[in-house]
Amino acid sequence: MEEIETCPAQRLLKMLSGKWKAEIFRLATESPLRFNNLLRQIQGSNKQSLATALKELEEEGLLEKITIKLKPLHIEYNLTEKGKALIPVFQQLEGLA
């Protein structure tokens, strides 16, 4: 049986629930993300929890993973169009806190 969402914001809250997802999303609104920078920026994070959160945000269509083939090879995460469309909603939620 499929769950019926009674509040439009419920879907966004579900997408951003979980360890570090909201913080990662907030940082992605400011600039492209790199994994090691995230490890330094998010106090208490670890490689496994960050990797899981990034993968889930990518699966939700909020982040896209881009491999930059310059030496040294590195990966950046950027907001997708779907992610960018959610910025005003996210900012409103932040303003309520």
TrEMBL record:
Keywords per UniProt: DNA-binding, Transcription, Transcription regulation
Domain of life the protein comes from: Bacteria
Gene3D superfamilies noted in UniProt: Winged helix-like DNA-binding domain superfamily/Winged helix DNA-binding domain
All copies of domain HTH hxlR-type, residue ranges: 7-97
Keyword Transcription: yes
Keyword 4Fe-4S: no
InterPro entries, per the entry: HTH_HxlR, WH-like_DNA-bd_sf, WH_DNA-bd_sf
Pfam families from the UniProt entry: HxlR
Matching SUPFAM superfamilies: Winged helix' DNA-binding domain
Name by which UniProt lists this protein: Winged helix-turn-helix transcriptional regulator
Lineage: Bacteria, Pseudomonadati, Bacteroidota, Flavobacteriia, Flavobacteriales
